[in-house]
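We emphasize that the prediction below concerns an isolated chain of 365 residues; any contacts that depend on oligomerization or on bound cofactors are therefore not represented. The input was used exactly as deposited, without trimming of termini.
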Amino acid sequence: MSDTTATTLAVNSDSGDLPPAARQIDLRSDTVTQPTPAMREAMYRAQVGDDVYGEDPTINELEEVAAARLGKEAAILLTSGTQGNLIGVLAHCQRGDEVIVGDQCHIFQYEVASCSALGGIQLRTIPNGRGLPSAQDVTDAVRGENIHNPPTGLLCLENTHNRCGGAVFSAAEMAPVIAVAREHAIPTHLDGARVFNAAVALGVPVADLVRDFDSVTFCLSKGLSAPIGSLLCGTNSYIQRARKYRKMLGGGMRQAGFIAAAGLVALETMVERLADDHANARALAEGLARLPGVILDPASVQSNIVIFDLARDVNAGAFLSNINGAGVRCNATGPSRVRMVTHSGISAQDIEVALAACQRALAAG
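Result of the prediction step, given as a token string:
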């Protein structure tokens, strides 16, 4: 589900027996994370310049660090993951090209048809499976040379996969799909909004995970807890094209080193602790799975996203209203489907409180 457009189940802090000053347990998304004190200090002290002229030293440093971390030649700082994916696609494709994507991917589901509306690019959706399309489906989607066909310009994958419950894919799992693109000389792009979650879950360097992709985006503002920003990484020539598209889309941010300063702290201090979010998500999933009325396989939870269904005899509206009243915020992704996301603002104790609220809500009917 989208972190910006999903149905938000708002909480009134004065509802029920919840004291007005009580702490909210916000499981809507890891986008609600707050910058750490170290980030705030770095932002205050950041050296800045005009980034459009290439003169912001802090942005330059962040881009160099990000490119090195992902094993790519260059990187560019962007405002968001959605902007990163759009520019990522535009810098690979020509107007009239077709891009192969999974039917549940974020680019197709939640990015406002930007590739079509702004790039003149058609998205070709194929079955998503548990987040990774099959090599055969990709093969079948590649357009042959024919006067009636648009050229296949790009293959996009997503890791971790948002709508598929934060599913994680190893380099070996993705390799057969990428091999099909290579066979047909089609470039590849990874929507890696939470790719550091994937790397931590697998216990591998993130560069190993993205080595075979021509371009990668990742977000600073989700689990890494920075207040804003995403990076797009690729070759030097590719990033130069991306800079032109960023300017075209109004993304030249001038003295934006303040943003980059928080991003540098995020990369230095917030990656390894993602394992804590994963542990909390597993504890949440295991606790939910034990509750009557919840349909969830805890083994399906691999990172920090927990998606579960409510049984038919559960009044989903009442359940959500009750946990909201208990100070637990989350998002509905369907009539009886709920998503909860752990992050740096959620503790193991918060998980216990959230589970207790869910248990009471289910018992209330």
